[in-house]
Each structure stands twice: as structure tokens, then as C-alpha cells.
Amino acid sequence: xxxxxxxSAASGSMTPPYPPSSEKAVAGPVTEPASDLKEYISFDxxxxxxxxxxxxxAFGFEKPSPIQQKxxxxxxxxxxxxxQAQSGTGKTGTFVIGGISRVDPTLNEVQMVVIVPTxxxxxxxxxxxxxxxxxxxxxxxxxxxxxxxxxxxxxxQQGRSRPPHVPHVLVVTPGRFFDLLHRSAVSPATVRVLVMxxxxxxxxxxxxxxxxxxxxxxxxxxxxxxxxxxTMIPELAEKAKAxxxxxxxxxxxxxxxxxxxxxxxxxxxxxxxxxxxxxxDLYDHLSIQQANIFVNTRAKAEWLAEHMRKRGFDLSFIxxxxxxxxxxxxxxxxRAGKSRVLISTDLLARGxxxxxxxxxxxxxxxxxxxxxxxRIGRSGRYGRKGASINLITERERRAQAEIESFYGxxxxxxxADLNIM
Length: 421
Hints:
Helix content is 33%, strand content 15%. With 421 residues, it is of the alpha/beta class. The chain has 2 domains: 34-252, Rossmann fold, CATH 3.40.50.300; 256-413, 3-Layer(aba) Sandwich (Rossmann fold). The longest helix is centred in the N-terminal third of the chain and has 14 residues, at 119-132. 46% of the residues are buried. Mean pLDDT is 83; it is low at 1-35.
């Protein structure tokens, strides 16, 4: 699929905040490189609709982050966007503010779709979108696998049975979205903005076939497409560009994605079976608000939780094979601070924003090198200070060295004085 970027037909003017449904967008090439994109240092300078601006400030945003300074206005103008930015630097706010600026809340139809890899990320984006769009009367719905499809159909069904309050924004996982499209519960003809968050994962093997099936449908030529991620290897970046038309492209070198606000350390142990003892010893000496511990498999998550509980630690764990309601309950408890420690597989490595998390521990280094930066990015959100600790054996030294080389950031030996963390 190749979408056509849309800009205002009025020469020199910004697209109206809520473009009328009859407006015919025209193609407009982007000629300026990302490095020359205008940066807007204040939300007030972006010519946002007043109700969206109220939502932005009410949500707690005070000034735009670097990615927001560059990418929001191109989205408002209707350009396709391929954007990469470090974890915790406001990507969600970027595509939410830019995308809902193109939504007409007086129309009873789905106008913006955000595709994400996990239920947890979908829930989070829905909350952000609902909050920022609250003053404009924006309706947002989450549709993800594992929940009853008839509930989504009741909210979305088109035709004679169409309910009077169809959501303007739909946040979906790929499989459920394809199902809803197949059932004609969502009409491609009404969609003005299509966003893929964690785009590198969306375009990788696990989801690629579903995404290709979705994009092969009859989307409007004027639909705007935005692809966002914290990591984007060159091969996937080229694949992403093939889906876009003259996109505004904002990509980082791998060495620019090292998350400077996070102090990265490691502890080497002689054998794998010594990691548990080392981990428990760390918790006896560290003062933390909340922490994520990452492992690679469901079995290891359950094993580690069981053994830490036996030693008196109050914690929870989560993985992708858990029942949907239980996953949601545990995630809500962690957000609310009811559990201080959450053990997780890479289900939570991407995009989950819990501000109180100050420490990430990699009990095992990730299988996919790109997930390392997503994992440690759970701490140090929005420029806050955070820390990560890798527990490694001699066998894992090479994997850590590859991570250091790729991101251009040295992981330091954990100091004896933990107060400097």
C-alpha cells in the first residue's frame, strides 16, 4: 500500500483542526529533510484547536519534547510520518495530538486507527487519547484479542444497526482489527489517520502477514499514515518507507538511542543459578519505588516469582499466556503501586509507562538486541533519572558487549557504593 499524504488545499494555511468530511486533500511532497524541520518549542505555537490545547495542558504536558517539537505539526498538516524517538520521550503524545487534530468530532464514524502489538499498550494509548481529547468530545474504543468480539461489534457495527455514538478513534491489535474489517464493523472509507506504534515490531515476522492483509484493503488515497517506534533497524526502516508517500522522516542513529538519563550497570555471577541469590541481595541493599524485572520466558517468570515469594518478597508477574482479565488486574495493581516489583517477559518491554519505576533489572538479557533499549526505557521516563542492572554470566558477556557496541554506551560494573545510582 502507498498512501497519499494530505495537506490543506488552501495555499500557505494549516489544515483546519476538524477538516470537513467533504474536503478533498491533495498530495504534497515533503522536500525538507528531518534535520531542517521547524521545531515548535511551545504547544501554543502549533495552532492547535483550543479544545485539544486544553486537553494537552490538563494531561500534564508543559512543553513539547524533541519528537513532539518536530512531528506534531507535520501530522496536523496531513503528511505521512516515519518517526523514531527514545523511549519515554513522548511518542504517544505526538501521534495522539497530531492525529486527533484531523478528527471531526461531529461525525459518527471511526476516523483514526492506532495499531499496537499488545493489550497493555492499547489500554495505555486509549487512556492518553481519551484524556487529551476530553474537551473536544472525543470517543475512543479499545479492541484487542482475547476480549469478546461481540462487545466491539456492539460499539462499532455499521449499517442500519449502527449505534449513535461510534468511536472517533479505535486502538486495536492487528488480529482483532483484521477481524473487525472482515466483518465490516469498520469502514476503511472513513479513516483519515492510520498509526502504527512500535512500528518495527508491527513490520517484523510476528505481525507482518496480518499487517499486509490489513493494508491490502481499499483504504482512501488521502489517508495519512504514521509509523512510530523507539528502535528501527535499517531494513525495517526501508520497509516502512515503502508504505508511505513522501514522509516526514525522523530517524536516529543507534548511538543516539542510549537513554542518557538511565545509569546502566551490570553484575557478573559465576553461574546461572547464582542470579537469584544476587538479585535478592540487591533488593536488600537498594531503596526503590517500583521496579521491573525482565526474563525471556513464561516459565522463568513463574519460577522467579515463586522463589522470590518464598524469600518474603512482595511482587507480581505477568506474561502473554496469562488470562486477559488477570493480566489487566496485575497491570492495574502495578500502576496503582499495590505491587512494587513486577516480573515480566518482553510483553511489557515496549511503551508501558509507569512513572514510579526507577529501576529495571535484566535477570536475563533479551533474545532480541533491540528489546534491551525498550526494557531499560521503562525507567527514566520523560527525562527522569533511572537505573538498569544486568545480571550476566561469563557466557553472556559477549551479548552485553554487542549491546554496548550497537548503542555506543558502556554498561558499567555495579559500584560497591549503591548510593551513587
